[in-house]
Write a structure and sequence with these properties.
Oligomer: single chain
CATH topology: Ubiquitin-like (UB roll)
CATH architecture: Roll
Bound molecules: FE2/S2 (inorganic) cluster
Distance between the termini: 32 Å
CATH class: Alpha Beta
Structural class: alpha+beta
Number of domains: 1
Order of helices and strands: EEHEHHEE
């Protein structure tokens, strides 16, 4: 198994570097395993938006394209929640090139 380390900023603004992300997890699964309060109520099927978070700009580019299902869900977010680097973390697969990514947990 391979893993990379990312930095996570929680909803209180607490920044935690060195969070381990294993290669068999989506980003959502990594955040849940590490105890972050992500409901993931649709189980990772890009249909609930409770796993919404923000990536840093470089990682957003690295993480690849947003498919139609994810785009539809992101479009349901309030304007003040949606940011240019918004992603549904269940749709962000592990990628070695995401080492050092900074992930800010989205609002409820
Ligand atoms: S877990 Fe529901 S959209 Fe990601």
């Amino acid at each position: 198994m391979s893993s990379i380390q990312i930095t996570v900023i929680d909803r209180e603004g607490v920044t935690t570097p060195g969070v381990e992300w294993d290669d068999d997890e989506s980003l959502m699964e990594c955040l849940v395993r590490n105890g972050y309060p992500i409901l993931a109520s649709c189980g990772g099927n890009a249909s609930c938006s409770t796993c919404h978070s923000y990536l840093d700009e470089v990682s957003f580019e690295t993480a690849g394209d947003i498919d139609e299902d994810e785009a539809d869900v992101l479009d349901t977010l309030m304007d003040d929640e949606r940011e240019p680097t918004s992603r549904l973390t269940c749709q962000v697969p592990w990628d070695m090139d995401l080492e050092g990514a900074v992930v800010r947990i989205g609002p409820f």
